[in-house]
Every structure is written in structure tokens, then in C-alpha cells.
Amino acid sequence: MTFPYRRILCPIDFDDNSLAALEVAAKMARQQDGSVYVLHVVPLILAPTAMPIYVDLYKGQEEAAQAKLVELARKHLTGVKYEIHTSVGDPAAAILKSQHAAAADVIVMSTHARRGFSRFFLGSVAEMVLRESPCPVLTVRRTQPDRNQVGTWMTTNPATAAPDEKLSSVHAIMVEGKFRSMPVVKDGQVVGVITDRDLRRHEGFTEHTDVRQAMSDQIITVTPRTPISEAARLLRDLKIGGLPVLQGNELVGVITTTDILGALTEQE
Under 8 Å CB-to-CB from 32, ≥6 apart: which residues? Predict the structure, then answer.
């Protein structure tokens, strides 16, 4: 197997570290025109002899994980080719089996850096995969984020519109993704924002109207370090559904009212 890696397996368990691994996998796929195979393994805690009694329990957990994966893919894998998979069993064994089934060139996964008794008792899934995997394994560990900043809660890799795109196309994307607004990007720069209000104003003419004719070029942005309270204030005062998040001149995400509500709910 040689670089570039185009078939990327990314096992996740829904914590911050595994979401960081998913972001790395998505970035690799964009750079190499690759595909991401996202896997969640529901750990098999009970002995196999007990399985007939508890099969519905594991089925429910697997269905819940599938729904979470769909939502994470919508949020983190915009513009990336991907497949989502769930499995029940030993995590390390399931990851290795999935690597073989997907013919993955590389595994991108999180590590929790367990030490002491926790490591002795639980072991390290990442360490076991590293020992047994026939392909390279890239481990990712996220430092503790500041949960009062936009960067922790923003939607990364957001859907964007182009100035010469038709409103009908943008409307379809916004309806499918349940977006209230989308950044408009030209040559890598944010040049405007198109909102659901803009679409309503051009109802009946969306198939013949370019985004540039309907968008607002009065752009209010925030950065990943903007306090979440300041982003909430801007959304309230401006009566809009989302704000582009810029790192320098680069669009790195959007922060929406839904993201803000998620932050407030978790803090509660």
C-alpha cells in the first residue's frame, strides 16, 4: 500500500477524540479524492450464550448508532464520498474485519491514552489494532476543547453555494440539510450569505435566478475563538439562523442556532 490513501476506515465511538479522527479522515479524503468508511462498534459485553435473551437490546443500540452516524456524516463529511457501518462485537476485532472488507488503505482512529490500571484492565483498542492491522494506522487525540468557544460547537465543512449557482439548486440543498442559510464562496473566499428569506423573496423565479442576485454581501462572521455567548447574541440581534466561522480568510465552519442550543443544553 502506498500513499496517497484513498480508502480510509474511521472507527468512532462518538466522543470528542473520535470526532477529531473523523475530521482528519475527511480532510485526507478531500485532499486525495478518497472515500471514508465510518464504523461504530457496539461492544459485546455479555457472553455469547446470553445473546438470544439480549438480542433486542443490541439491535436497539445498533439502530441508535446508525442514526447518530447519519447525523455526523451530514455534519462532518459534506462533499466527501462515504459509507457508514455498524457492528456488534469486540471493537478491535470488528475494526480489523472491517479493514479487510473495505480493503482500507489506512485506518484513522482516536486514542484515549489510558494509563495505569485502566489500561491494564481495559486494554487499548488502538494499540491492538496497531499490532494486528495489515495497513497503516493513524491515531488522533484531541486536546480538551474550550467549551465556551464557537470552535467547539460549530458545524465543520459546511455546505456552500457559488455566486453563479441557481437558487433552485441551493433551495434543494437547504431543504435536504434543513439549513436556514448557506455561505456563498468564490475562489475560496466568503463573498456573501444566502438565506431562506432570500429564497422566499424570489419564489417562483428560483430556476432562473443566480445566487449573486439574491444573496446578501453584508457578511457578519465569527472565529473559532469567539465566545459562544457572543455568537448567540449576534444570531438573536440579526435574526438569522447561522454565521460563517472564519480562521483568517478561510471558511472553517458555520455556527447555527441549533449548534447554540446544543451547547446550552449540554452545559445545563
Answer: 4, 5, 6
Mean pLDDT of the chain: 85
String of b and e for 80-93 (b: at least 16 CB within 10 Å)? bebebbbbbeebbb
Region at 135 (left for phi over 0; alpha for psi -120 to 50; beta for the rest): beta
Burial 176-214 (b: 16+ CB within 10 A, else e): eeebbbbbbbeeeebbbbbbbebbeeeeeebeebebbeb
Confidence (pLDDT) at 234: 94
Q: Would you say 8 and 104 are in contact if contact means Cβ atoms under 8 Å apart?
A: yes
Among 58, 27, 56, which residue's Cα sits nearest to residue 156?
A: 27
Give which of 45, 152, 135, 51 is closest to 98, Cα–Cα.
Answer: 135
- Residues 47 and 2: beta-carbon distance below 8 Å: no
**Could you give phi then psi for residue 108, rounded to 5 degrees?**
-115, 115
pTM: 0.53
123, pLDDT greater than 50: no
CA 38/CA 95 separation, integer angstroms = 10
Q: Tell me the per-residue pLDDT of 146-175, one tens digit each, with 9 for 90 and over.
A: 788 999 889 887 889 999 999 999 999 888
